């Protein structure tokens, strides 16, 4: 019996008892867990029935229990105030659930609730004038996790990256290299391409402080680029190519995957035709300066201090585009390219107003799908002072952070392997999985809209709310299961009726809750729900394992039953960590 079927069966029995007691089918019953596992395996609250049956929830619970008979599923029922606490027979509770989880294996936790619906998750959006930084890692971790969770719930998902590859900021790196690069390349300097180009962006800023005339040269270069000047375009392609090579290395190290890339150089002119159509439909207007503006809906945005409707400029009088101009066109392009039902933008919280305006404008222009566009807003990431040096004293470089985390993981692995039994290749492999996994988990363990103080040492700890703690729980289970294979005689069939102590029940409850937590995380665009649940599952396993023997349990049927329980636990830990982009290890 699957977890869903078990819950359905329990509710059917509760409903039948309620109908006997009150003469009508109850409405709105939901099944959950009692606050303490010793109180029962499941709990059903009677609050929704008070209005229907015109009695207090406590009276309703007591009457339903009076009409509920023990059977092969419900071993015991008791009323506790407004709740009905239920004990389920061990073979069904532990046996059916554990077998269902291990049979589903990598598919456990997934569902088909999004089947037939198509979603795009757009994340990262780097600039091609500098390397990725710590904020990009949070963006990428969020984007990948949300995309994975959407896929796990049956959606057809496109992972997209909109690359900001044109504009003034790109020309600054180009001009600086022209002036001071002396023909050097990433290869000649033995440096990643994005770091190489980033040096010239920094160099430009330094030189511009001394020579304001450089700003005019930047504008001239941008005009040449927009006019298609061959020499300027060749330089642009060359330097962007260096950056893309560097980005690709970082993507691979951090496990970032994309199905499609959009480039600002291809999309920046999009939107102008849409704006003209908006003027014709009178959804947009011209202000007294000739700028095209959108008057924001009063119900959503209110009015300004003068009592006028708030407005946003979408096209300048000289017909030069703004960011929102191209965003209008790109939003439509993405929908038409992929026939999307949902479009999710993973962008920092400083852009909340921008996206609120964008979605309101798309709706006003008649695009009904605008209501299914979502801005996944996330907070800043800070590094505590003195924990790690950043390249220019301000921005924490992504490559440096990844390297630092891998080194911290390697140091911990060597500390735990004083005899040097692990090969250098194995140490390197484990350190990468632990170090990168630690970063992702730490960035995903809090709600996206919260800012984070990223502490490298805390994130790599094998204790506490961390990725390595969860990875270690999985590795412990893998070790036990591997050791169990050395038994001389075949193990007997598991006797699941022997399971039922508080630690076993709590652990099983965590396994049962996993699919619902995935669905809840998708509904809220919040991977921290999965991260928190996986941590609590690992914690419940450790509480169980610290108190109870598995391979040395009192009887062989109990050994077999506990092995099935921890096998199911390994499935949940593996599947949950995979959703977060964190790799598991068989040994740590």
CATH class of the largest domain: Alpha Beta
Mean pLDDT: 94
How many whole angstroms does the radius of gyration measure? Answer: 29 Å
* SS content category: alpha/beta
| Poorly predicted runs of 5 or more residues | 388-393
Largest sheet: 5 strands, parallel
Distance between the termini: 34 Å
Report the CATH architecture of the largest domain: 3-Layer(aba) Sandwich
Which band does the percent of strand residues land in? 5-15%
Assign a percent range to the helix content: 40-55%
Number of domains: 4
Shape assignment:
flat
Task: Quote the CATH topology of the largest domain.
Answer: Rossmann fold
* Total E-strand runs: 14
Main sheet: strand order? 7-6-5-11-12
Q: Give the CATH superfamily of the largest domain.
A: HUPs
Count of separate DSSP helical elements = 22
């Amino acid at each position: 019996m699957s977890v869903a079927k078990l819950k359905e069966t329990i509710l059917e029995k509760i409903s039948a008892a309620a109908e006997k007691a009150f003469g009508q089918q109850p409405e709105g019953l939901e099944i959950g867990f009692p606050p303490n596992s010793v109180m029962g395996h499941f709990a059903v609250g009677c609050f929704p029935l008070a209005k229907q049956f015109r009695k207090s929830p406590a009276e309703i619970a007591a009457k339903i229990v009076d009409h509920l008979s023990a059977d092969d599923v419900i071993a015991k029922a008791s009323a506790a105030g407004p709740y009905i606490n239920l004990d389920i027979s061990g073979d069904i509770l532990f046996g059916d659930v554990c077998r269902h989880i291990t049979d589903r294996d990598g598919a456990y936790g997934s569902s088909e609730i999004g089947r037939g619906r198509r979603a795009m998750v757009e994340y990262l959006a780097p600039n091609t004038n500098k390397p990725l930084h710590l904020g990009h890692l949070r963006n990428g971790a969020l984007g990948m996790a949300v995309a994975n969770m959407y896929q796990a719930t049956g959606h057809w998902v496109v992972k997209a990256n909109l690359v900001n590859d044109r504009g003034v900021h790109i020309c600054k790196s180009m001009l600086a290299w022209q002036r001071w690069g002396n023909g050097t390349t990433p290869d000649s300097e033995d440096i990643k391409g994005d770091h190489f180009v980033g040096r010239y962006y920094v160099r430009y800023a330094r030189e511009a402080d001394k020579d304001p005339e450089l700003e005019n040269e930047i504008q001239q270069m941008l005009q040449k680029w927009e006019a298609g000047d061959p020499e300027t375009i060749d330089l642009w392609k060359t330097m962007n190519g260096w950056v893309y090579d560097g980005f690709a290395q970082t993507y691979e190290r951090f496990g970032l995957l994309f199905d499609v890339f959009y480039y600002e150089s291809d999309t920046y002119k999009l939107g102008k035709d849409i704006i003209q159509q908006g003027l014709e439909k009178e959804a947009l207007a011209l202000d007294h300066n000739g700028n095209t503006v959108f008057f924001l809906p009063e119900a959503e945005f209110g009015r300004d201090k003068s009592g006028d409707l708030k407005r946003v400029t979408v096209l300048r009088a000289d017909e030069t585009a703004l960011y929102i101009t191209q965003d209008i066109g790109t939003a439509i392009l993405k929908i038409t390219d992929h026939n999307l039902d949902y479009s999710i933008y993973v962008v920092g919280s400083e852009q909340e107003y921008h996206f609120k305006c964008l979605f309101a404008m798309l709706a006003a222009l008649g695009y009904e799908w605008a209501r299914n566009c979502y801005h996944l807003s996330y907070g800043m990431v800070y590094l505590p002072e003195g924990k790690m040096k950043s390249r220019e004293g301000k921005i924490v470089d992504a490559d440096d952070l990844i390297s630092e985390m891998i080194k911290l993981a390697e140091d911990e692995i060597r500390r735990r392997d004083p005899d040097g039994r692990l090969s250098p290749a194995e140490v390197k492999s484990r350190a990468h999985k632990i170090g990168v996994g630690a970063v992702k988990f730490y960035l995903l363990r809090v709600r996206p809209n919260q800012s984070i103080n990223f502490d490298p040492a805390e994130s790599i700890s094998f204790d506490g709310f961390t990725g390595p703690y969860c990875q270690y729980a999985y590795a412990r289970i893998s070790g036990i299961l591997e050791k169990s294979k050395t038994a001389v005689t075949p193990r007997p069939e598991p006797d699941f009726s022997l399971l039922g102590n508080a630690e076993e029940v709590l652990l099983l409850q965590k396994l049962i809750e996993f699919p619902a937590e995935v669905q809840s995380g998708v509904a809220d665009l919040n991977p921290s729900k999965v991260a928190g649940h996986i941590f609590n599952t690992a914690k419940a396993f450790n509480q169980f394992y610290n108190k109870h023997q598995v391979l040395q349990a009192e009887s062989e049927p109990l050994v077999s039953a506990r092995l099935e329980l921890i096998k199911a636990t390994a499935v949940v830990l593996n599947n949950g960590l995979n959703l977060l982009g964190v790799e598991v290890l068989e040994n740590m």
